[in-house]
Amino acid sequence: MIRSLLAWLDNRTGCNDLIHEALYEKVPGGARWRYVWGSTLVFTFVLQMITGIFLWTAYSPSVQTAWESVYYIQEVMFLGKIVRGMHHFAAQAMIVLLAIHLIQVIIDGAYKAPREINFWLGLVLLKIILGLSLTGYLLPWDQKGYYATQVSTKIMGATPVIGAQLQEVVQGGAQYNHHTLTRFFAMHAGILPGLLMGFLALHLYVFRRHGLTVHQPEKKPDTTFWPDQVLKDGVACLGVLAVVLLFAIFKGAELSPPADAAKAYAAARPEWYFLFLFRFLKFESVEHLGLAFGAIYVPGALMGILFMMPLTAKMKAGHRFNVAFTWLVTFGIVVLTTMAFYEDANNEDHQAAIAEAERDAHRIKELASRPSMIPVEGAVSLLREDPFTQGPVLFAKYCASCHRYDGHNGRGVVLRETDQDTKEVSISIPEATDLANFGSRDWMKSIIVDYGKHFAPLKNAQWYPGADDAEFNLDVSEMAEASEEYAEAFKAEKNAGELNALVEALVAMRNWKGDEDVIDSALVKRGQQILDGEPLADGSEISSCIDCHDTIGSDLEVTGEGYGYPDLAEYGSAKWLKAFISDPGSDQFYGAKNHMPAYADKMNERDLDLLVRWMTDDYHETHVENYPSRITEVFGAGAQPASPSADE
């Protein structure tokens, strides 16, 4: 019955002749592993088509839904992470296989007459595949693709004569926006695959017309494509599939934070196979000659030489020149790519940007997975309104000129400065206290018994008073003397728990989220008694905090009245911090002693709220790790912040 069906089908379509033509192609010198690269390329493209169709069913190309739909594919859709990973890594495998195939064709001389047309068709396919890589990079609409693709459109704008018009057509207008995404999607999912299939069909047709080109023929009998070469091609394709699948399972495709035009993305880089061009454009001489020279003229000249190879080969020693040129370009690409990786790995700012991008990528997934999920405004609004994400950015912008946060600028970077005379780069010395553990028990304890060390970075400030100024000098001021008194008193055996009680009373005033579960009420009660001036356990009396800070334990009322001593009502709370940051020079805080700028007119209410909520741990819980401590490095520059150990 099956034979009858096949006979009927062959009678109507002639499929047996087509199959015989495909399978029984002549293979001079027998099957070889060096012939598998073209087949693996076709296989990889088919794999791209299949996975791309599955991704297409869930992808939504708009600036408010693109990242969100990719997040859904990767985190929610059944096997979505595997499918996207296979699509992503198959694209990279295609670039590698394409390079190998091109090099093999040139070495074997398979571009010579009568195969010129097929070689040129291959170069067209090369351009289309690179175009697919570029257009696909933008589609997740994440920070990495958003900023890296802007470089591509900028290069298009550098094209002589028609650059501005070309850039506008490609990105859908004068601005980089929603139309850019939809046009890239149309090219990636429709136009370029259609062109690729058409040119691939022509490429295969011309290839079959002229057959295989044998490099150094071996004395083996000729065979046919089936079965030996089919087996080798099948094994090679299976190997490619296995590698792609392993990468998809164990590494997965990256999804950086949602694209945000308002936030620069220093970690943006093109995919690794374009890094050589990225590094080439960074050479000072190339930059001096302009973007068009480095990104259009030089690559254009190289492609021109490739295009002319079939004609060059007709000259004496032409083929050897082509082979040497191919290896020289390959070596240059490898060297430039290696330089790019090496420089990025040793660039502290770039590594910090990568660390921040990774934190944001993990954080956005935490926020998007909450019961409230992603709002209508899009996922980018989650990060914009997240204190954990925005706090470090705002700290670096407004506070890091004087303060540090665990030794860095809040974003993991140790600030450095360059000597104008010697050009020597050194760590920038902080001029105010490290705020990494603000409001914690360690913070309170350090102020009470080690005041001089706690505020030691203030000595680096130009305004710091001389040794004779007893009003604010860390060594001879009233608080410095009181701190020495407290340190001595709490050393007594009977007073062993009194310092903890005093600290607990101060910590209780901050009223942070979750404090009700960790505050020891018995210690708070005893600490409040000490704050009110009662003797310590051994009967000794110490200077009472209320002698200067007469608002301890009461509600904070920002009246502007006081004595120039910091108001300690609700000390460490969000309310206290907002009032202090807004106007630290009011009499309620430092008054005439103050040297910190007021931020009431420098920060809007939203930014102030985000900064304060970050400093007081008022944000959705997270498993994202903090930036590594850089305290040790800053110590070498003379800073002596309080111990940055964690609170509870």
Summed up:
With 648 residues, the chain is an all-alpha fold.
In the CATH hierarchy, the third-tier topology of the domain at 31-258 is known as Cytochrome Bc1 Complex, Chain C
Give the assembly state of these chains.
Answer: single chain
The spatial strand order of the largest sheet comes to: 1-2
Radius of gyration: 34 Å
Describe this structure in words.
This protein starts with a helix and ends in a 13-residue tail after the last helix. The longest helix has 33 residues, at 178-210. Strand 3 and strand 4 form a beta hairpin. The protein is built from 25 helices and four strands. It is mostly helical and 648 residues long. Among the domains are: 31-258, Up-down Bundle (Cytochrome Bc1 Complex, Chain C); 273-346, no CATH class. The strands form two sheets. It has a two-stranded antiparallel ribbon. The chain has helices spanning 2-13, 15-23, 37-56, 66-75, 80-108, 116-138, 143-157, 163-171, 178-210, 225-250, 275-280, 284-289, 291-312, 318-345, 348-368, 380-384, 387-398, 441-449, 451-454, 478-489, 498-508, 521-531, 574-582, 605-615, 631-635; strands at residues 26-27, 223-224, 416-418, 425-427.
